[in-house]
Amino acid sequence: QVQLVESGGGLVQAGGSLRLSCAVSGSIFRINSMGWYRQAPGKQRGLVAATSSGGSTNYADSVKGRFTISRDNAKNTVYLQMNSLKPEDTAVYYCKLNAAVTGPWSANDYWGQGTQVTVSS
């Protein structure tokens, strides 16, 4: 059983910072990638940041230079550091894991429950 538990969301003023955490538990054969997605009211869910098993990263253009994705392997936790927050960053943020859990030939997506981030002007 694979579980993702998110934390760190909240209310912050424009220009402030938040750090989201995603703790992963369960037996995993191989992690392919992890990422953060967000969905604002009335908008489609989209990728914010992602990291591969080899450590490469990619970001949405709207967050480059402001957000940083990182991982702490010892704690089985992935983070999203969000700086210089803007009102347009307001959304529900979801952690996603893509992993093979029973063997090397298949993989599935696993999602956290989401955490609300609200940025006031």
Task: Give a quick precis of the structure.
The chain has 121 residues and is mainly beta. The chain contains no helices and 11 strands. A hairpin with a 7-residue loop joins strand 9 (91-100) and strand 10.
Descriptors:
121 residues; mainly beta; 4-stranded antiparallel beta sheet; 11 strands; 0% helix
How would you describe this protein?
- This protein has no helices and eleven strands.
- The mean pLDDT is 95.
- By secondary structure, the chain is mostly beta strands.
Number of strands: 11
The portion of residues assigned to helices is: under 10%
Structural class assignment: mainly beta
Main sheet?
7 strands, mixed
Task: Lay out the secondary structure.
Elements: E1 3-7, E2 10-13, E3 18-25, E4 30-39, E5 46-52, E6 57-59, E7 67-72, E8 77-82, E9 91-100, E10 108-111, E11 115-120
